[in-house]
Task: structure prediction
Amino acid sequence: MLRSEEKELRLRLTEYTSEKINKMVGEGKWTNMDIARLTGISQSRISDIKNRLKIDPPISRRLLLKFIYNGIITIPGIKSNFNFNDEEMKWLDNLDFLELEEFRSLIMRVEKKGIDVKALFKKMLKDAKKD
Result:
């Protein structure tokens, strides 16, 4: 996927995420601060996304991962709201592992053993780039 195509996809996902956050906050069950604490994304960035400010550039892949991992948005929810071409579907399918309960459970067990999962993944990515 070209960079410009990925940016356009992330822009659509930013709009979708904004709608989801607005719905959560509008129902009175969540605040921006609650979402910030859950995801680790700053409250000001949550507010920007919610209010559709500073959406160009759209939210980064890293922030999308945090929203997906913490259940703010879901891959099935995204897929049901948009029509995607094959490349976009492949891009999204590469993120769906974050929703697997087994994956989340494994991360929590590893962290309880004192292993820095974030550092482990960074090392794996760095090693993969060498190949």
Q: What stands out?
A: Residues 118 and 124 are 10 Å apart (CA to CA). DSSP finds eight helices and no strands in the chain. The chain has a mean pLDDT of 86.
